[in-house]
Amino acid sequence: LGGIQFGLFVKKTFLKQIEHVSVADVTCGIGNVFHNKGAIAAFLQVKARNSGSDEQGTSNRSKSVRMMFITAHMAAHVKNSDARDADFWRISSELEAQAPENFLPVRRSDSTSQDRSPLFDSVDRVFFCADLNY
Fold this sequence. Notes:
Structural class: alpha+beta
Number of helices: 2
Strand order of the largest sheet: 1-2-3-4
Number of strands: 4
Order of helices and strands: EEEHHE
Helix content: 10-25%
Largest sheet: 4 strands, mixed
Radius of gyration: 17 Å
Shape: elongated
């Protein structure tokens, strides 16, 4: 069976701005074992810029930017829409569990939204590119 592949390319001049990169994957293929369905994500943290404006007049950031890039391949056919929905929530839950230390905020035990994954709300940018088969 095939597998999901992921490539993240960065300009050489931008490499020094990257603080952290890590990769996680979630299998959703047959028996949640095979990589023909599922997702791969890259967690990327980009350094803060000095406060103020640079010489080109662009504003700078006072804190690091956390980004997540995800590629996924979901189950095909109309009859599998419930399976695709379940796989999406499983992917988000497992990616949250595999997120790098200090990438996501600590989940408080007294939080009223314990049934919700803070994954997508906790990063500054999410790029989700996928063959969703909807």
